[in-house]
């Protein structure tokens, strides 16, 4: 009986170790990833639904780990938040994206905004505004060409705090989008207090918008809410012509998704834009 017990013990332990090992490996690697220059920023266009012009490029972080390969943001962003590493990583992304947008302008590309995702942890940092101001000063990017995306759930965690921070960001001349909109609990009463420019319809409502009447109702309600508050509305995760037609008929302002482009390395952006204008 003693031997059996030992066997059972041996049987369960390796799997638990493997999970803990993976997490520890990720965490130790994440601490070194900035210094080792393992991060890349990819860019995905936002498209004006009527003119088809590119209004912005969203910066999406990619981590190329030397042995694990490409690690998805869904795997390392939560870890970066738990460890506080999101603060230096987020500042790095902001700086890289602002510098890149300056470069595109200098290359003669038409002016577009660059959109950077802010995590909840970053949003709560008392020195967030200082960091943003410093990056803008260092890179010389016009604040009007920077957009910050903050999720609805982060904003709704503490609406009064969010009202104050968003107002300060907007005073710098930066655009603000509420990301993953529709998944949180904003009401019209909340929304009118926030200094924001855009609502971004979460892709979970876009996927089945043509066949699911609840999703269609949510999408059209968000568009109506945006219109009544003079906000732009963008839909993310647009993959098909059918979804695009629905959004266009219902007066959504902008779209983003694989239908137009997957996120691409910065070097591909000029070719992407040229390819579109010669079409
Ligand atoms: P998000 O900000 O909601 O970004 C949209 C995600 O949907 C991206 O995944 C994008 O690649 C993906 N996507 C774009 N078009 C389509 C489409 O047509 N269909 C589908 N199914 N997906 C599409 P990604 O790049 O893996 O990023 C996942 C999340 O990680 C982001 O969600 C964002 O919350 C976070 N993230 C990425 N980069 C950063 C960053 O620099 N800072 C912070 N704080 N978070 C980031
Ligand atoms: Ca986003
Ligand atoms: Ca989103
Ligand atoms: Ca999301």
From TrEMBL:
<feature type="domain" description="EAL">
    <location>
        <begin position="23"/>
        <end position="277"/>
    </location>
</feature>
<protein>
    <submittedName>
        <fullName>Sensor diguanylate cyclase/phosphodiesterase, PAS domain-containing</fullName>
    </submittedName>
</protein>
């Amino acid at each position: 009986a003693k031997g059996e017990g030992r066997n059972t013990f041996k049987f369960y332990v390796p799997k638990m170790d493997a999970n803990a090992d993976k997490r520890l490996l990720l965490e130790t690697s994440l601490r070194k990833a900035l210094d080792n220059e393992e991060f890349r920023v990819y860019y995905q266009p936002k498209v004006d639904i009527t003119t088809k012009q590119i209004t912005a490029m969203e910066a999406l972080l990619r981590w190329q780990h030397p042995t694990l390969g490409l690690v998805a943001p869904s795997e390392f962003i939560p870890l970066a938040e738990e460890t506080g590493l999101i603060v230096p990583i987020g500042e790095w992304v902001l700086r890289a994206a602002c510098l890149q947008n300056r470069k595109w302008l200098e290359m003669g590309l038409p002016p577009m905004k660059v959109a950077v995702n802010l995590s909840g942890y970053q949003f709560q940092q008392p020195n967030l505004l200082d960091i943003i101001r410093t990056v803008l000063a260092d890179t010389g990017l016009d604040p009007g060409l920077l957009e910050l995306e903050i999720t609805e759930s982060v904003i709704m965690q503490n609406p009064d705090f969010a009202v104050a921070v968003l107002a300060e960001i907007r005073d710098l001349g930066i655009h603000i989008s509420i990301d993953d909109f529709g998944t949180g609990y904003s009401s019209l009463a909340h929304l009118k207090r926030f200094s924001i420019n855009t609502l971004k319809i979460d892709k979970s409502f876009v996927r089945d918008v043509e066949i699911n009447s609840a999703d269609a109702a949510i999408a059209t309600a968000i568009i109506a809410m945006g219109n009544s508050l003079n906000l732009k509305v963008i839909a993310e995760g647009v993959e098909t012509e059918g979804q695009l037609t629905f959004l266009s008929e219902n007066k959504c302002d902008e779209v983003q998704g694989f239908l137009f482009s997957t996120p691409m390395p910065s070097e591909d952006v000029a070719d992407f834009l040229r390819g579109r204008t010669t079409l």
